[in-house]
Amino acid sequence: MTKADIARIVYERHGGISNREAARLVEQIFETLKSRLSDGEKVQITGFGTFLVRQKRERRGRNPQTGEEMVIKSRRSVVFRPSKLFGAAE
Amino acid sequence: MTKADIARIVYERHGGISNREAARLVEQIFETLKSRLSDGEKVQITGFGTFLVRQKRERRGRNPQTGEEMVIKSRRSVVFRPSKLFGAAE
DNA sequence: TCCTGGCGATGTCGGCTTTCGTCATCGGCC
DNA sequence: GGCCGATGACGAAAGCCGACATCGCCAGGA
User: Which range of residues forms the domain containing residue B86?
Assistant: First the structure.
């Protein structure tokens, strides 16, 4: 499933907006999420899950091509914590 | 940040829809995502990230309250793979 | 609908990091 | 006002991430 699929479903279910507007809305929502997460902000979508930003420390790894050890730099990552309300999680 | 914040931003930036409609849209989008992921489907939002459904095998754990060993049952989980395009991931 | 540019998946190793069970309480989302 | 999510305890097992080339597919514009 992709953004286009989501936009189509929004268009079909919502009514009153065009396909194009639906696509723009979907784009806007994910751009907003991305922007906030990039700023380090936590995002909580009740019933869906929570996006958290984690700061990961520098650590050792290796170049998988050469086998040489190298440093994986400290960086931020985004983790998703699904809501316990997800169905069929069996 | 929560669903309400996202809805407000959608309302502010999009125009032509009410606050309430914006909230419904946001709700609809995440309900759709949740539903598809619950069905085991992968969801890819280019530029944002990919949600994957993983089947995790049964494994050992322990009751944190009693210290007794117990089994963590096999189950499905959703993992999020952020796009490499996330900014400020430094 | 087509075309083109760009995004994402894939595989490799290994030391370190994260996962998850239960459950009561409280803050906050809807 | 009711429901959802965060929190913490332990430890075996699962997952992370570097580089990078290639190929499949997404997405936006015409």
Answer: 40-90
The confidence score (pLDDT) of residue B16 equals: 80
**Which residue matches tokens 């907006």?**
A17
Percent of all residues in chain A with a pLDDT value above 90, rounded to a whole number: 64
B45 in the same domain as B12: no
Q: Which parts of chain B register pLDDT below 50?
A: 89-90
Residue A10: closest CA among B49, B28, B68, B88: B28
Q: Are residues A25 and A56 in the same domain?
A: no
Indicate if B19 and B3 belong to the same structural domain. Answer: yes
Complex ipTM value: 0.92
CB contact under 8 A, B87 and A33: no
Looking at the domain assignment, is residue A19 inside a domain? yes
Q: Is B52 on the interface with A (CB under 8 A)?
A: no
Taking an 8 Å cut-off on Cβ atoms, the answer to whether A47 and B41 are in contact is no
Which residue minimizes Cα–C1' distance to D14?
Answer: B56
What is the C-alpha to C-alpha distance for residues A7 and A25, in angstroms, rounded to an integer?
8
Q: How far is the CA of B4 from the C1' of C29 (A)?
A: 9
- How many other C-beta atoms lie within 10 A of the C-beta of residue B87? 10
**Residue A90 maps to a domain:** no
